């Protein structure tokens, strides 16, 4: 038998009824949700520090432009709470992504051929590393440059509007 026939036999032998697929999907979703929920709780506990890390480029840009004592203000009663919830949500999604992606892979892997599994894993690993690198590089470098450009643009427009 050829390798292709062996792969076909492996897929044929692993066929399961719809109910077992749905049960497997439910179990995989449970693990993904549990991982996200635990990460969310941890991130909410550290939300103030995560928020400070994310706002640091804005503060540095304000200080570089000569603003004294830059600070964020909230205009609504619940705005700070919901801001921390959003920070916690996106941070938890970022942290729990490896578990979520692993659960997706474990659900889909029995239906894939051996060469498709290898391609999927190499694609997942390279994209995950690239994504994390881009996120941290953008926080450390691109955001401060972008903020400075936007501040200069808005200040030039304000001067124009108020001078007329």
What is the secondary structure topology, with strand pairs?
Layout lengths: L2 H11 L4 H28 L1 H18 L14 H30 L5 H50 L1
Helix pairs in contact: 2-4, 3-4, 3-5
Span from first to last CA?
Answer: 84 Å
Give the low-confidence spans. none
Overall geometry: elongated
Structural classification: mainly alpha
Order of helices and strands: HHHHH
Number of helical stretches of at least 4 residues = 5
What value does the average pLDDT take?
81
Q: Tell me roughly what share of residues is in helical segments.
A: over 70%
What does this structure look like?
The chain has one domain (17-163). It contains 5 helices and no strands. With 164 residues, it is mostly helical.
Q: Which structural traits does this protein have?
A:
164 residues, mainly alpha, 5 helices, 84% helix, 0% strand, elongated
Task: Summarize it.
The chain has helices spanning 3-13, 18-45, 47-64, 79-108, 114-163. With 164 residues, the protein is mostly helical.
């Amino acid at each position: 038998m050829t390798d292709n026939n062996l792969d076909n036999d492996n897929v044929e032998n692993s066929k399961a009824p719809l109910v077992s697929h749905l049960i497997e999907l439910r179990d995989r979703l449970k693990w993904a949700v549990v991982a996200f929920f635990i990460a969310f709780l941890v991130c909410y506990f550290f939300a103030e520090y995560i928020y400070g890390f994310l706002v640091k480029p804005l503060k540095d840009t304000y200080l570089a432009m000569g603003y004294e004592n830059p600070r964020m203000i909230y205009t609504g009663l619940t705005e700070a709470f919901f801001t921390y919830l959003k920070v916690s949500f996106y941070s938890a999604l970022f942290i729990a992504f490896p578990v979520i992606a692993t659960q997706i892979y474990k659900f889909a892997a029995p239906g894939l051929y051996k060469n498709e599994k290898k391609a999927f894993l190499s694609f997942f690993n390279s994209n995950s590393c690239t994504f994390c690198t881009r996120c941290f590089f953008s926080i450390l470098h691109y955001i401060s440059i972008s903020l400075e450009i936007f501040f200069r643009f808005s200040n030039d427009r304000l001067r124009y509007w108020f001078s007329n």
